[in-house]
């Protein structure tokens, strides 16, 4: 057996691999530079182009570009009318922003449990958490796999809830042949550098509903409008006149970030392809290892995976998750854990959420680890990761 690097052996590779990273080429850089030399550097023609690009790609009627994915979720909750006293159902196995967006609006996040095999929010658990205060569901396409859109749609229709899809992980994924972005009442994207398409920072909300679209545009920029039909004080006093008709924010995206996103969108199909190839290689290698549980996919989801998660079957290993993680690090494969259940954080603990609330999510959390997955990985990088996992497993096999 190969000696683990953490015990003084040779690491499987020299340079460190990280769990995710962007892929920016010279043409992406040029697209940004072109905007910086132009007349408009914020919320100008490139933001319009980015919105049209997202509409064309997803099939959604409207896209509203915002400064990041968290702002997208906040805007979606505001457009949905989420307010003090409301409840918003979401998953605990996500980035904190999926729940925080409800708190921003004075509402209370309610955590539904996950399916222990797909790790996505379980529609039956959503149903069980509905009260007469429930206003919306924020369903996260965790790791890029689509949530059960049909089931969640049916629940939302039955109870009059607004369905917001947190698609920060899932741009490029299809559900029953339709692109994510065109499915829920509102869909939120993030363009953070670890996500599939990046603008450095950036986000967008997509919708087919004109009323949401109007509200989203207002809250993005201070609730200010130049549109006569939205003003109360018309006839107005002159060409300078605009009105602030509701409370909004400055969630604008710059044109140079939009240019990067437009340039990256032209590569999305190749990113999707490469991510799928790597996932297929990982699945093939790990499905044979009894100590590793591979994430299950629903057939409706044609997934562009943002994260590749291995779940350790700790009953079959003589190490802890922490020891496995450290051993992978020493092999120069830097993993990450996605995510600590949101309600475990002190902010939520202080608000009375108790540990044990979502047993499936907590159980899955205790064994999972995200291994490197990004399109720029070479075949050798992929082999190195597989080698490292097998090596660590072999050393800790019971
Ligand atoms: C990244 C992420 C967000 C937030 O996006 P930002 O662009 O970083 O603000 C929201 N939800 C999920 C699930 C994410 O992974």
Structure description:
This protein has 398 residues and is an alpha/beta fold. It folds into two domains: 145 residues, Alpha-Beta Complex (Aspartate Aminotransferase, domain 1), CATH 3.90.1150.10; 240 residues, Type I PLP-dependent aspartate aminotransferase-like (Major domain) (Aspartate Aminotransferase, domain 2). The protein is built from 13 helices and 15 strands. A seven-stranded mixed beta sheet has the order 1-9-8-5-4-2-3, with helices on both faces. It has a three-stranded antiparallel beta sheet with strand order 7-6-13, with no helix packed on it. Helix 2 runs parallel beside helix 8, helix 3 crosses helix 4 and helix 3 crosses helix 7. The protein is globular and about 80 Å long. It starts with 25 loop residues before the first helix and ends with a helix. The mean pLDDT is 97. Bound molecules: pyridoxal-5'-phosphate. The site of pyridoxal-5'-phosphate has 14 residues, from helix 3 and helix 4. The site of pyridoxal-5'-phosphate (PLP) has 14 residues, from helix 3 and helix 4.
